[in-house]
Specification:
36% of the residues lie in helices and 22% in strands. It is of the alpha/beta class and 381 residues long.
Amino acid sequence: MSAAPAATPPNAVLDRLLAADPAPLAGKTVFVGFDAFVDLVARPLRAPDGSAGPGSGPGAAQRVPHATLAGFGAFIGARSGRSASVELEERAEKLGGNAPILGNALAALGARVRAVGPYGLPAPHPVFAELARAGELVSVGEPGLSVALEFEDGKLMLALNRAVDRLDYAALAAVLPPDRLLALLSGCDLLAFVNWSEMPGATDLLAGLARDVLPRLPKPVPLLVDLSDCSRRSAADLRDYLDRLAALPPAVPVLLSLNRNEADRVRAALDLPEGLSDAEGVARIRAELRLDWAVLHDRDGATIAHAGGAHAVHSLRNPAPRLLTGAGDNFNAGLCAGRLAGLGPADALALAAATAAHYVSQARSASWTDLRDGDGRRRTP
């Protein structure tokens, strides 16, 4: 297998799907877990002469942002051996994390979302209000905090993940015992466990659920898994998690969604040969891990391997993308939506490409109306 046949163009898939049902996800419920972050976007300020600048007073209006990451680095380095105070200009506060972004994207397509994660105590943080309105939000701890310092030449992410790092199966079960978890998952039509990379307890979460909950589900329920950028985790950790995915019961068919970097790490962890085509690579990953679907996606397109073979789709490229962060989560939302709507793997892949293209183009998650009428339909795949 050197190349995958092309999937049906997204426009044709949408026309056929929406002609049959204008609300394909009505009555469908998706469980998403287990990460949650509050993202604070800010710019560090300085005085026009390059000093840190006053925090208040007459000179406050003269402060200007550090223009470049390189310049800010030089500013910090010059203060080695001394102390410095840097004021931040807050630009935005928004939700972060793969599970919340995926949940919001699925809600935009009409699914009911049941989200479990560290959303804040005693009440969820206000940035998750939209997600809470999408269905049911169950908080089991405090969210992580990520301060994103923006510059003209890049972004510096400062993460405080201690609360998220502490979330393992014991911590989850202390708030939601196995019977309560079973009740939450039993009413769902699809499960999504995402951001393994940034959650040290993610493997333990999967192990506990595989032992106490997943075998007791009353019906087969597909599970979407997204590893996130797993370069920070060891090959041994990754292989352990992959082996646990492979050992899940057949009643929990796994859909593994990988970007190119993640796919490279998975291939290495599985000792697969180098030089495989995309179609060969995802087919080998699927076979090794006994997956239902294995997907590779990047900015140029996506490939899916399934029981019937493999298919590929080109991305709907936008020459002036408005937002790239979160595109993978919106791709996954389209993939999940296709599965929930009963589409085959090739058509679900085409739908995933369309949802990602809309998000990149419009800087927001797509509704069915957006996908039916949006500018992505006028682009050549």
